[in-house]
Design a protein that fits this description.
With about 350 residues, the chain is an alpha/beta fold. The protein has two domains: about 220 residues, Rossmann fold; about 100 residues, CobW-like, C-terminal domain (Hypothetical Protein Yjia, Chain: A,domain 2, 2-Layer Sandwich), CATH 3.30.1220.10. The protein is built from ten helices and 13 strands. The strands form two sheets. A seven-stranded parallel beta sheet has the order 3-2-4-1-5-6-7, with helices on one face. Strands 8, 9, 10, 11, 12 and 13 form a six-stranded antiparallel beta sheet that branches. Belongs to the SIMIBI class G3E GTPase family. ZNG1 subfamily. Zinc chaperone that directly transfers zinc cofactor to target proteins, thereby activating them. Zinc is transferred from the CXCC motif in the GTPase domain to the zinc binding site in target proteins in a process requiring GTP hydrolysis.
Length: about 350
């Protein structure tokens, strides 16, 4: 297939809680984003973003088997192959956006897109957009090597939540980003309000433009892809990180839940890599979405209605570092029970 007929793929990456889903929700409403296929990867066996992303009908594919950089690289190729079959059958697709899990090392993903012959027959990597959280970005870059690689491979950098930091903190983050990827000018993005051009770049990704370190990572990923099997637990990127979800079939009391979340954030905020949920609250007919990253919580959002085909129940996803599940589960149960008897 000629290069100009290949469907461009944009990889949207960024560490947990940077706001990738919010950005997609905004951009997919734009007319320029019509006929966009969205592939969404979740961390571990927990899938929730498909309930929050307003993607095109039948075009949002949730990959639940594990992190893209570890166990489901084959599933990425398979998902693209299925999309190619639908395109051959008449499905109009102008572009693909691949949203990675926040803990994904993007290098093996890029290696798959650059080296898989079946994928290259139909698709071309158009660019990597990395979203960085202004409130937690410096700390994340200091502690998470995946976040550094996400920034290093980007050909577009977006900085979310600029309103949550002062100018001194923002300049420190921008300086760190320039140090990792000096060729890119970061663009502030507030509440996902980016132009469609943020994801519509058509330039072919060239590892030669990304610096010696990235070329080395791509070479390493290529060797892994052909000669080495990853033995990662699909729920872990180091021994202290794990993900799980809690579900509640009866409406939750907001007062008890909010009090518990405040206490957990105050005492163990550094361990809360990501908390997100859709809540069925007492006295509320519509679902409420909550999002938190470490010590930063977004205001709860009242959604328009319950997603089609999904039961009306609360579901909260936790991605934690060095915090046992029992501490979270038992603490939440105690506060909910206390609120119910108050």
């Amino acid at each position: 297939m000629a290069t100009d007929t290949l469907v461009p793929i944009t990889v949207l990456t960024g560490f947990l809680g940077a706001g990738k889903t919010t950005l997609l929700n905004t951009l997919l409403r734009a007319p320029e984003m019509a006929r966009t296929a969205v592939l969404i990867n979740e961390f571990g066996d927990v899938g929730l973003d498909h309930l929050l992303v307003e993607a095109l009908e039948d075009d949002a594919v949730l990959l639940q088997a594990g992190c893209l950089c570890c166990t489901i690289r084959g599933d990425l190729s398979a998902a693209l192959a299925r999309l190619a079959e639908r395109m051959a059958a008449g499905q109009a697709v102008d572009r693909v956006v691949l949203e990675t899990t926040g803990l994904a090392d993007p290098v093996p993903i890029l290696q798959t897109l650059l080296a898989d012959p079946a994928t290259q027959r139909h698709f071309a990597l158009a660019g990597v957009v990395t979203l960085v959280d202004a409130a937690n970005g410096l700390n994340t870059l200091n502690r998470q090597p995946e976040a550094v690689r996400q920034v290093a491979v980007a050909d577009r950098l977006l900085v979310s939540k600029p309103d949550l930091v002062d100018d001194t903190a923002m300049q420190a983050l921008l300086a760190r980003l320039r140090g990792i990827n000096p060729g890119i000018v970061p663009v502030p993005v507030r509440d996902g309000a980016a132009s469609p051009e943020a994801l519509l770049g058509q330039r072919r990704f060239d590892p030669a433009d990304q610096g010696q370190a990235v070329r080395g990572w791509l070479d390493e990923a290529a060797w892994d892809h052909h000669g080495h099997h990853h033995h990662h637990d699909r729920n872990r990127h180091d021994a202290g990180i794990h993900a799980f979800s809690l579900s509640f079939d009866t409406p939750l009391p907001w007062q008890g839940l909010a009090t518990w979340l405040e206490m957990l954030t105050a005492t163990r905020g550094e361990s809360l890599l990501r908390v997100k949920g859709i809540l069925d609250l007492q006295g509320q007919d519509r679902p409420v979405a909550i999002h938190g990253v470490q010590h930063v919580w977004h205001a709860p959002v009242l959604l328009a209605g319950w997603p089609d085909g999904e039961p009306r129940r609360s579901r909260i996803v936790f991605i934690l570092r060095d915090l046992p599940r029992a501490v979270v589960e038992d603490g939440l149960a105690a506060f909910v029970a206390a609120s119910a008897t108050a």
